[in-house]
Design brief:
The complex is a heterodimer.
Chain A lengths: L4 H9 L9 E2 L10 H19 L1 H7 L1 H14 L14 H7 L9 H16 L9 H5 L2 H5 L1 E5 L4 E5 L3 H9 L11 E8 L2 E6 L4 H9 L4 H8 L7 H10 L3 E6 L2
Antiparallel strand pairs in A: 2-6, 3-4, 4-5
Helix pairs in contact in A: 2-4, 3-4, 3-6, 5-6, 10-11
Chain B lengths: L15 E4 L5 H6 L6 E5 L9 H9 L5 E4 L13 H14 L3 E5 L2 E4 L2 E7 L5 H18 L4 E3 L6 E2 L6 H12 L2 E5 H10 L4 H7 L5 E7 L2 E4 L5 E4 L8 H14 L4 E4 L7 H16 L4
Parallel strand pairs in B: 1-2, 1-13, 2-3, 3-4, 4-7, 7-9, 9-10, 10-13
Antiparallel strand pairs in B: 5-6, 11-12
Classes of the chains: A alpha+beta, B alpha/beta.
Chain lengths: 250, 286
């Protein structure tokens, strides 16, 4: 009697499945619920990993509901790699389709924001430029240049007020969210990523730069929003040490 | 930046080490007490940058490191994940730790990582597979690794050899060393009703490069028999300390890690465990 790892795995992830036979307690009796130690380790450790990664989602749905969500998710999407720090990238889509959560329209975007914060935390380090470079470079040259952004920068665009929702759940005394579409940049100075609410056009601007467009083109794209403020946008990115290079287009 | 041309520390000292937790960074940097080296779980340091790697960079100037993998799935039926092995090589080439170790266990099957150390039967077939995987790891990393004995909650009917014999054979075939987890020995012996002292006495102690000590929880099986769970969430139990003393008397002083991965305490509680290990190590002539 051999126990294949396929049998073992199938019984691990399905608590209703029969436990594999061929396992004993070492004294001649069937292993019985000893197998459940492994079932429990897998479910509990993956649930805890998700709770750590998605604290605001957990707070919004409540601890017990989150455990139900996590239990269903980990069975549908066990980790694809041993890098638990990135586990849960399919959670936003799963939330959007999972019957108990699919009516909560803003929840997938909150999950996306929490994923972005983690990815940003572990992203590569980069040296910011000296802000004086912007002042000393002629405007024409500048507008034709490519602006490199920090690898830790993430952009989230949502039809929901997810910045306000995130703050309301994470920051003591933050204002109650009111209905609005919000764009957020996750910006990381040194080591701690922070979700920053973006003003009009800023997300278009950042998106254009991320796609490798020249500064002038990014400004053009952002200026479709009449209230886009280039000075304020650059000041924000510089203050958060997110501009890492200014160079010629290749 | 780390000096990447030389290995700073050639080996782990015969002193207590601790499983490194970021919340202890300040304590360890300012006064590590008897702690002479640090161990990290490889998978927690496979990001591209940020605080985790910056802390390592800082601590590696001062402490020998042990990189302990929890995700290679050396006992798996599938081939080793080449991407994961490449990530591991990247980390080890960068950090140049004094030691690398992994588990006699599997955790990945059909592309799903199950985040637990799962058991395998001890047969000629699994022996050949484990040895092949260890050859691949050692060839890729260009260094000798240590293989750790598991904690067992059940036994496989199909097993044809004892765990100590299995480990010895793996080491003989591959040239790898062994990591002896004394808590795992105690947990397995209790769970499978065998004698932990006989296990230690049958263990090839000359191949041991590192010892692990950790806490366990107590449960029971369907028949009310004790079932110990290797939880790493509390102090090392007294009978495990006694077994450790027996081990050190036989083997001489060895690098000894205190593992405390869940309900991680404030630094003084962890340091107290290291102090206790240091006392055992010092009572034994080298």
């Amino acid at each position: 009697m051999t126990v294949s790892q396929s049998d073992f795995r199938a019984a691990l992830l399905d608590p209703k499945a029969q436990r594999p036979s061929g396992l004993s307690d070492g004294k001649g009796d069937n292993a019985g619920r000893r197998f459940d130690v492994y079932r429990n380790n897998v479910a509990v450790s993956l649930t805890e990993a998700l709770e750590t990664a998605f604290p605001v989602v957990a707070k919004l749905v409540g601890t017990q509901n989150f455990k139900t969500l996590a239990g269903a998710f980990l069975r549908a999407h066990p980790p694809a790699s041993p890098l638990m720090m990135f586990y849960g990238s399919e959670l936003p889509a799963f939330i959007a389709a999972f019957p108990p959560t699919r009516e909560i329209g803003y929840l997938p975007d909150v999950a996306r924001l929490e994923l972005a914060l983690r990815q940003s935390y572990h992203a590569a380090d980069a040296q910011p430029i000296n802000p004086a470079v912007l002042e000393t470079t002629p405007t024409e040259t500048l507008m034709a240049s490519r602006v490199g952004l920090a690898p830790s920068l993430r952009l989230i665009r949502s039809p929901w007020p997810i910045h306000a929702i995130w703050r309301f759940n994470m920051v003591e005394g933050a204002a109650k969210p009111e209905m609005a579409a919000e764009d957020i940049a996750v910006l990381r100075m040194e080591f701690d990523p922070e979700p920053v609410l973006l003003g009009p056009g800023m997300a278009d601007f950042v998106e254009a730069l991320t796609n490798g467009r020249a500064l002038g083109e990014a400004v053009e794209s952002a200026s479709l929003s009449p209230d886009f403020d280039l000075g304020r946008t650059l000041a924000l990115l510089l203050a958060h040490e997110c501009i890492i290079s200014i160079g010629e287009m290749t | 930046m780390l000096d990447t041309t030389t290995q700073r520390f050639e080996r782990l000292p015969d002193a207590p080490g601790v499983g490194y937790k970021p919340q202890h960074f300040q304590d360890i940097a300012s006064d590590p007490g008897p702690v002479g080296w640090l161990e990290i779980h490889a998978e927690n340091y496979m990001g591209s940058g940020g605080r985790p790697l910056a802390q390592l960079r800082h601590l590696a100037e001062r402490f020998p490191f042990s990189v302990h993998g929890v995700g290679l799935s050396i006992g798996g039926e599938d081939r080793l994940d080449p991407e994961h092995l490449a990530r591991l090589k990247h980390l080890v080439d960068w950090l140049k730790p004094a030691s690398f170790s992994e588990h006699l266990a599997w955790s990945t099957h059909e592309s799903a990582f199950l985040n637990d150390l799962l058991p395998l039967p001890y047969t000629e077939a699994t022996l050949a597979r484990v040895a092949d995987h260890i050859d691949e790891v050692q060839d890729t990393l260009g260094r000798r690794m240590l293989l750790e004995n598991p904690s067992s909650y059940l036994a496989f009917d199909e097993s044809t050899m004892a765990e100590t014999q299995f480990l010895q054979e793996v080491a003989r075939k591959t040239g790898c060393g062994l990591l002896l987890d004394v808590n795992n020995v105690f947990v397995s012996a209790t769970n499978l009703a065998t004698d932990p002292v006989s296990y230690i006495d049958a263990f090839p102690l000359d191949l041991v490069g590192e010892i692990h000590l950790g806490g366990h929880d107590e449960d029971e099986d369907d028949h009310g028999a004790p079932l110990l769970i290797d939880s790493h969430g509390r102090e090392v139990a007294d009978p495990v300390w006694t077994l450790y003393e027996h081990t050190i008397r036989k083997a001489g002083p060895l690098p000894t890690l205190i593992e405390w991965d869940n309900n991680v305490p404030e630094w003084p509680a962890l340091e107290a465990e290291a102090v206790r290990a240091a006392r055992v190590l010092q009572s034994t002539p080298a």
